[in-house]
Amino acid sequence: MTTFGVEEEYFLIDPHTLRPVGAADVVLDELGPETTETGLVTHEFLTSQVERATPVFTDLDEAAADLARFRGRLASAARSHGVLAVATGTPFDAEAVTGVTRSSRYQQIRAGLGDIVRDHQICATHVHVGVPDREAGVQALNHVRVWLPTLLSISGNSPFWRGRDTGFESWRAVIMRRWATTGCPPAFTDAADYDRRLRRLVGVAGTVDTATVAWYARLSERYPTLEVRVADAQIDPGSAVLLAALVRALVVTGLADAHRGVPPPELEPELLDASLFHASRDGVGGRLLHPVTRELAPARTVVDGLLRHVDDALSIAGDRLRVAALLDRLWVSGTGAQAQRRALQSGGLAGLRELYDPARA
């Protein structure tokens, strides 16, 4: 069975103002060390963030239980220090960034990006899927890349910025567009082409190393995985599980299609980039660009097209019923962004606070 893992990023926020608080050191001390068997919890770019990489999974049930268990531990550790741990793509409100984590690499990034850093308050969900080798990974990447806007549409969870509704499902994706290397990766001829073009970017436009090439899908430089990083941090574990299942199925399908010599869909780079912006704005609330027909269609039609595309992979993994149930929930309850808007409209900041941490509200 193809393996996968999940990286989740969280904000630590003040429960009254819902603004980020630089409490990562004390919250991480409270959590204590974790090994590769239970995941790895670390600092992120900001002192108001923590990141956790899960163990390697083969089973969705195992992943769901692990994500829920860790979120409970993190919420408790955060509460003990007077803050909330929130999985959201952007905080509800925020002042300009001041607290960058003390590491030479992060400080180098800060120096190279200037005032872009002031607004770089974002959290994401990354899904790693095991691939046989870099050559196979690049070929799968060529197939996966055109579906990245569709994945973004179902995972938008950052509607607010500086206390206002942005009109976007994923304002995080808009903030990321300021980086020199972001969005959907280009198509590559082979692994040598990928590695050559990746490494040429280092040193250009604030790219301090290959890990700061911020494509929404890329090969890991540390593990034999293809990493999809298009999604906002997810408001609840179920949404993260849905994302992990679809990403794994996309990678498995891409590997199989490449092995059979099936070419990836042809989609002009400017159209792919525009469809990513479109998905960040509208999510599943309107129309999306279908990467095969290259026409706008109702969001549900495009998501159904994704499901048909990965149906064999979902069936082989035993994930079809779970994914169907999670998507049914999405069509009824909406994305994380829609849940945040409802919470604010119905209960103000108290409503958002309850959504972020029901145990403390």
Described by its quaternary structure, the protein is single chain
- Unreliable sequence segments: none
Radius of gyration: 19 Å
Give me the number of helical elements. 13
Tell me, briefly, the overall form: globular
Distance between the termini: 41 Å
Query: Could you give the count of β-strands?
Result: 13
Strand content: 5-15%
The H/E string reads EHEEHEHEHHEEHEHEEEHHEEHHHH
Structural class: alpha+beta
Largest sheet: 7 strands, antiparallel
Please give the share of residues in helix. 40-55%
Mean pLDDT: 94
Structure description:
The protein has 361 residues and is an alpha+beta fold. The protein has helices at 24-31, 60-79, 104-113, 134-144, 148-155, 171-176, 191-200, 237-260, 269-282, 299-309, 311-317, 320-333, 336-356; strands at residues 4-13, 40-43, 49-53, 84-86, 124-130, 160-161, 164-165, 182-183, 214-215, 217-219, 225-232, 287-289, 296-298. Strands 1, 2, 3, 4, 5, 10 and 11 form a seven-stranded antiparallel sheet that branches. A two-stranded antiparallel sheet has the order 6-7. A hairpin with a 6-residue loop joins strand 12 (287-289) and strand 13. It is globular and about 55 Å long. The mean pLDDT is 94.
In short:
With 361 residues, the chain is an alpha+beta fold. The protein has helices at residues 24-31, 60-79, 104-113, 134-144, 148-155, 171-176, 191-200, 237-260, 269-282, 299-309, 311-317, 320-333, 336-356; strands at residues 4-13, 40-43, 49-53, 84-86, 124-130, 160-161, 164-165, 182-183, 214-215, 217-219, 225-232, 287-289, 296-298.
